[in-house]
Amino acid sequence: MPPKLAEIVDEFASAPREVVLEMMLEFSDAVQPLPEALRGHEGMEQVPECQTQFFLRAEVQPDRTVRTYFDCPPEAPTTRAFAGILAEGLEGATADEILAVPDDLYNRMGLATAISPLRIRGGTAILGRLKRQIREQS
């Protein structure tokens, strides 16, 4: 797992349950605006498992690092937080590091006790689709 993401996972796993939602909201602000070329979601994949409209794109660079792009409305702070966690935790990571991220990432973070199973399923789908896009480019 990329070191930045491992640090985030540890922070969440050790945090008291009542603080976890506040921590998640902080990550919802980590989602960067899309570049102009992606603003209409051209070339992005929608994640239908999410309750709200969520789009993502992974681009494997020549040096095998991965650039990620996420778009989710601000009115969906939990789903947006998943994107923020991945955006920050995977920044600068290689394709192999991202593919090695455990599929049960959100359970390892202890989020299953703080948010609904439906939201966990959406977050897991986001990670799964991101990994699939990376595998297709490798």
Automatic annotation (TrEMBL):
One Pfam family it belongs to: SufE
Domain Fe-S metabolism associated, residue spans: 10-133
Similarity-based family: Belongs to the SufE family.
Name of this chain's protein: Cysteine desulfuration protein sufE
Species assigned in the record: Actinoplanes friuliensis DSM 7358
